[in-house]
Amino acid sequence: MSNQTQTTREPTMEGEPTPEKTGAIDIENLTKVYDPEGERVVAVDDMDLQIGAEEFVALLGPSGCGKSTVMNCIAGYLEPTEGEVLVDGNRVSGPDPKRGVVFQDNRLFPWKTIQENVEFGPQMNDGVEEGRARSILDEMGLDGFEDAYPSGLSGGMQQRAELARLLANDPDIMLMDEPFSALDALTKEIMQKKLIEVWERDNRTVLFITHDVEEAILLADRVVVMTARPGQVKDVIDVDLDRPRDPEVVTTDRFTELRERALSVIREEAQRALEQEEGEV
Amino acid sequence: MSTVEQVKRRFGAGTVPLLTKRLRQALSVVLFFALWAVLVRLEVLGFGRFVGPVPALSTFVSALLGAPMTGSGATIYQHAAFSAMRVVVAMVLATATAIPLGLLIGANRRWEDALFPALEVFRPVPPVAWVPIALLLLPTFRSGVLFVVFVGAFFPILVNTIEGVDTVDEEYLRAAESLGADSREVFRHVIFPATLPSIVTGVSTGVGLAWITVVAAEMIAGGIGIGYIIFQAYRLLQTDVVAVGMIAIGVLGYASAALVYRIGNRLTEWQTID
């Protein structure tokens, strides 16, 4: 399943050189038009973006800017109208277990227990390995909840369980669509820390969609700011803050600089989006 | 203590209930019989022609002891067994056809176009309206009655199953696909379990309609069964037997609804856990 060709992009994280890095995403001239025969809503217009293997990229933009459309094209849920998405050089033509997805409000299967949810991916692919689900659940702080149904868990625990389900499948790429936006501040901070921990250890590519500027800078190697609809790349901000980043990093001057830069772009685009909407009404 | 708590305490709704739940439930039955007795005694509307609760209960007891009902010579158990058997067989046939058909129509647009419009025309036709055609087309009255009961149960199960499939959140399907499930696995692990609560609702509605239909059909063409004895007794002006038949239907309907409810809860256990 992982016979992808290596891409040329330099890794932005230092670390032990792995023999073959996987999980590079190459978005080329991506255009997505909804309802091309009728109203023609251009969600994404001729977007280019390269994401390196094992890179952590945050996709930031005003709501309705096509962030989720981009993610859905990478996940293979949507067919691009024009252009294409390549993963490790191969054209994306549908969903694949190597590209795992975390949904905004988790999509744990309510009719399966937490353990059954976590074992679902392996069950569909290489087979369930005894004890592996349990160890992942332990790591996520969900020991003792193996036999619970998702409805018996808090929002934060559900989101951790969804992350556990994804990790059990060992994907190269994690696509996360505003995964923590529904959580309270404290739970959110814990989840962010957990995510970074997992990412630093396991060498996966992460595409993290958010509308929260601070979250984007705190987590990502690069923050890609999108324009208002039709979505394009407006600005790419390299986050040169040292890792590990503790929550206090938000008080540093460099963080403030990066945030202001991102915010000014966002404000401009949000304003433009507003005017667009008013124009449409 | 808040005002609400005071009020609750005064009216016994707090920790010390005025009556236990069982007692209150028993009270509702007693009140029902009292109302019945009063209506008969005061001859409200046509109640003067109807039997009172005491003779009805005495007929009920002798029926339970095995006395033959009306002129047929069969006991209440034989009649009840026939009606129940019709409901059970019709339910088995209806679930075995309506659930797969509903899943097929719901999961596949092409099947929906090919099958659903025709079914949609038949759906609003009350099951009892099928009686004449069933009697004409089927070789025996008994198979005709069975067919009509089947029709009564079939549509609620079908419609609820289709609607259940239609309302499965697409992101569950996406999640399953991204975890590596193929379309067969998506159906088995996502579409079917996600639809199960709707199917259970359909079966509950179906079993209720099956009882309504079986009584109506037996009145017209049963030969045997509770609906048949209710109507026979009416013709013979044995109003105590009419009352006994109604009670029997009530008990059987309640028991089968409770059974479906229990099985349904067991199957969708994940839903009720908080």
Question: What is the structure about, briefly put?
Answer:
With 281 residues, chain A is of the alpha/beta class. Chain A has helices at 67-75, 114-124, 132-139, 155-168, 185-202, 213-219, 253-280, and strands at 25-34, 41-51, 56-60, 82-87, 90-91, 99-102, 173-177, 205-210, 222-226, 233-238. In chain A, the strands form 2 sheets. A 6-stranded mixed β-sheet of chain A has the order 6-7-8-3-9-10, sandwiched between helices.
Task: Describe the overall structure.
The complex is a heterodimer of chains A (281) and B (274). With 281 residues, chain A is of the alpha/beta class. Chain A has helices at residues 67-75, 114-124, 132-139, 155-168, 185-202, 213-219, 253-280; strands at 25-34, 41-51, 56-60, 82-87, 90-91, 99-102, 173-177, 205-210, 222-226, 233-238. Chain A has 2 domains: 55-98 and 177-281, Rossmann fold (3-Layer(aba) Sandwich), CATH 3.40.50; 109-170. Helix content of chain A is 34%, strand content 21%. In chain A, the strands form 2 sheets. In chain A, strands 6-7-8-3-9-10 form a 6-stranded mixed β-sheet, sandwiched between helices. In chain A, strands 2-1-4-5 form a 4-stranded antiparallel β-sheet, with helices on one face. In chain A, strand 1 and strand 2 form a beta hairpin. The radius of gyration of chain A is 19 Å and the shape is globular. Chain B is mostly helical. Chain B has 2 domains: 3-50, no CATH class; 76-272, Orthogonal Bundle (MetI-like fold). The radius of gyration of chain B is 24 Å and the shape is globular. Chain A binds chain B through residues 75-77, 94-97, 99-101, 103, 107, 109-112, 120-121, 124-125, 148-149, 151-152, 165, 169, and chain B through 169, 171-172, 174-182, 185, 189-190, 193-194, 196, 268-271, 273-274. Chain A: It holds the Pfam family ABC_tran. Chain A: InterPro entries: AAA+_ATPase, ABC_transporter-like_ATP-bd, ABC_transporter-like_CS, ABC_transporter_ATP-bind, P-loop_NTPase. Chain A: GO terms for molecular function: ATP binding; ATP hydrolysis activity.
